[in-house]
């Protein structure tokens, strides 16, 4: 598991480490050295400008300046505010720097090959303006290689949001663990290449801090992926149902059904309205087809407990059609994956949806994009942090919430969350979301817990996109899954 620590949790990690006997200045020395090591990939002779702020982020900059100067680099250091404002470890680090300290405005950004951004890190607590904002704009225009210390200044560590203006770094060096703001947008774009340096903080502090957010990597969910038995049977792998829309909108459900079969379900049935039976029949092979007469028909189908997971929403249709179907699904004992029209069907009365989720024995996964999210959670949509949005929505609804985007975030009602950073931009194509819903459905049908299944699906979907490359269409994604699964186990 690759935990993501908020700035507050990171401060706690520092505090626990210092309390256990490592002086803060030692942590700062190691942090500054890690920055210097990254900067030193540029050849000797490169001019280096180091912009230091008034807190410990600036302290790291002073340490890096001293180490790089000692290695023979030409270093110029500029400070925001007076030396007399520095406190604690930052003051100690500044005292050990024997070179000149100029004001930030005097730093020669344009004549430098590398700029070290040590203005603000985890302690950024308000919008950047004035002299610091002007310096950041100059840094961004400089054309130099920009190495940010801990966070690109202006990026909020918890949310990835820009507070006023932010450095666009070539590389960022952070310490111990990355923060949500390194992977959430737009932070990730400002971070550039990320190095996570070991500065001597012990892993054991994580037991005390108990962080609840992680990077969406296989470590986060692989232990929950069902293990296939040599003597296993398709009936051991669950039976998923996908609900088809009417005659002219059947493709989305078929994409989801196909993906559910690829991702893990032993059997998949497409439940089709009578008018769409012929068109669905013409397109299905391994996916089975059953006639479904409205919500009563779906309820009857799902009364067979072997059908243990149902996905609906893609191409489901208008509210009058979609809502009774969703209600029937939620009244059944099956796990439910709700997407698209299935979510929008409750836009006028989201509480009605949450009331139906509360107390159900089987889990519900909701997969909104930003627009669908805003319909169900209008007040939460305005929150600045995506992690916060997903978590509060999960807590309110009782469902696992998967909030889509380049930084797709999955949260469960207890606050656990994972953030993905592996989605290539060409995943944004028609039907991609239907496929994602299907992958989740197949994994849940196979017996994977809903939160882990949603996380795994996001990662698998991203990797499938990466394997296929530009030019992919949604039909290809599910078919790339065997290749992605194979790579997972080598
Ligand atoms: N012992 C520790 O706590 C360690 C901290 N480290 C470094 O310390 C950093 C955190 O240090 P701090 O908590 O001092 O925080 P920062 O150095 O990130 O910033 C805090 C300072 O900036 C000011 N400030 C915040 N937002 C501002 C704005 N928009 N405009 C103008 N001034 C603003 C604050 O008033 C305060 O003086 C980390 O990012 C990391 O680089 C590392 O040295 C590792 C060890
Ligand atoms: K910084």
UniProtKB/TrEMBL annotation:
- Establish whether keyword NADP is in the entry: yes
Function summary: Catalyzes the epimerization of the S- and R-forms of NAD(P)HX, a damaged form of NAD(P)H that is a result of enzymatic or heat-dependent hydration. This is a prerequisite for the S-specific NAD(P)H-hydrate dehydratase to allow the repair of both epimers of NAD(P)HX. Catalyzes the dehydration of the S-form of NAD(P)HX at the expense of ADP, which is converted to AMP. Together with NAD(P)HX epimerase, which catalyzes the epimerization of the S- and R-forms, the enzyme allows the repair of both epimers of NAD(P)HX, a damaged form of NAD(P)H that is a result of enzymatic or heat-dependent hydration.
Task: Give the reactions, separated by semicolons, that this protein catalyses.
Answer: (6R)-NADHX = (6S)-NADHX; (6S)-NADPHX + ADP = AMP + phosphate + NADPH + H(+); (6R)-NADPHX = (6S)-NADPHX; (6S)-NADHX + ADP = AMP + phosphate + NADH + H(+)
Xref: NCBIfam families: yjeF_cterm, yjeF_nterm
What protein name applies here?
Bifunctional NAD(P)H-hydrate repair enzyme
EC number(s) for this protein?
4.2.1.136, 5.1.99.6
Q: Which residues form the YjeF N-terminal domain?
A: 10-207
Annotated AMP binding sites: 404-408, 433
Does the keyword Ribosomal protein belong to this entry?
Answer: no
Name the cofactor(s).
K(+); Mg(2+)
- Tell me the residue numbers annotated for binding (6S)-NADPHX: 56-60, 121-127, 150, 252, 315, 369, 434
In the record, the note on similarity to other proteins reads: Belongs to the NnrE/AIBP family.
- From its record, what is one biological process in GO terms? nicotinamide nucleotide metabolic process
Going by the UniProt record, its keywords in alphabetical order are: ATP-binding, Isomerase, Lyase, Metal-binding, Multifunctional enzyme, NAD, NADP, Nucleotide-binding, Potassium
| Boundaries of every YjeF C-terminal domain copy | 217-488
Name any one GO molecular function. Answer: NAD(P)HX epimerase activity
Residues noted as binding K(+) in the record, renumbered to the chain: 57, 117, 153
Q: Which gene encodes it?
A: nnrD
User: How does the record describe its quaternary structure?
Assistant: Homotetramer.
Q: How is the cofactor bound?
A: Binds 1 potassium ion per subunit.
Against Gene3D superfamilies, the record matches this protein to: 3.40.1190.20, YjeF N-terminal domain
């Amino acid at each position: 598991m690759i935990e993501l620590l908020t700035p507050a949790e990171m401060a706690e990690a520092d505090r626990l480490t210092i309390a256990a006997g490592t002086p803060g200045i030692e942590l700062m020395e190691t942090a500054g050295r890690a920055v210097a090591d990254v900067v030193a990939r540029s050849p000797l002779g490169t001019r280096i400008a180091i912009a230091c702020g008034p807190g410990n982020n600036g302290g790291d900059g002073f340490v890096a300046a001293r180490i790089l100067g000692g290695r023979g680099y030409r270093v110029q250091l500029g400070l925001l505010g007076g030396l007399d404002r520095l406190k604690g470890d930052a003051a100690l680090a500044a005292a050990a720097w024997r070179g000149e300290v100029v004001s930030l405005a005097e730093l020669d950004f344009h004549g430098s090959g590398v700029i070290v951004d040590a203005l603000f890190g985890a302690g950024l607590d308000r919008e950047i303006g004035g002299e610091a904002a002007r310096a950041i704009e100059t840094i961004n225009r400089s054309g130099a290689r920009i190495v940010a210390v801990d966070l690109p200044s202006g990026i909020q560590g918890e949310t990835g949001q820009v507070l006023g203006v932010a450095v666009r770094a070539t590389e960022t060096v952070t310490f111990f663990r990355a923060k949500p703001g390194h992977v959430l947008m737009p932070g990730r774009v400002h971070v550039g290449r990320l190095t996570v340096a070991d500065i001597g903080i012990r892993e054991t502090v994580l037991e005390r801090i108990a962080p609840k957010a992680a990077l969406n990597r296989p470590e986060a969910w692989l232990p929950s992926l069902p293990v296939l038995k040599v003597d296993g049977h398709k009936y051991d792998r669950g039976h998923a149902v996908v609900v088809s829309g009417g005659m002219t909108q059947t493709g989305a459900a078929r994409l989801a059904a196909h993906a559910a079969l690829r991702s893990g379900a032993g059997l998949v049935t497409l439940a089709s309205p009578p008018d769409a039976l012929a068109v669905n029949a013409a397109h299905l092979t391994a996916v089975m087809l059953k006639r479904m007469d409205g919500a009563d028909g779906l309820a009857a189908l799902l009364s067979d407990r072997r059908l243990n997971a149902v996905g609906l929403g893609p191409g489901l249709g208008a509210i009058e059609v979609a809502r009774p179907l969703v209600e029937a699904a939620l009244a059944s004992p099956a796990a439910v994956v709700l997407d698209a029209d299935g979510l929008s069907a409750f836009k006028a009365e989201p509480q009605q949806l949450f009331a139906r989720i509360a107390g159900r024995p089987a889990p519900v996964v909701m997969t909104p994009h930003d627009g669908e999210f805003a319909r169900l959670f209008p007040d939460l949509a305005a929150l600045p942090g995506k992690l916060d949005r997903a978590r509060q929505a999960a807590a309110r609804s009782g469902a696992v919430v998967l909030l889509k985007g380049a930084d797709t975030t999955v949260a469960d009602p207890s606050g656990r969350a994972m953030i993905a950073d592996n989605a290539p931009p060409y995943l944004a194509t028609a039907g991609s979301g239907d496929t994602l819903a299907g992958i989740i459905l197949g994994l849940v049908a196979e017996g994977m817990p809903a939160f882990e299944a949603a996380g795994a699906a996001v990662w698998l979907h991203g990797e499938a996109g990466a394997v296929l490359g530009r030019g992919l269409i949604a039909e290809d994604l599910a078919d790339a899954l065997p290749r992605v699964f194979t790579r997972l186990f080598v």
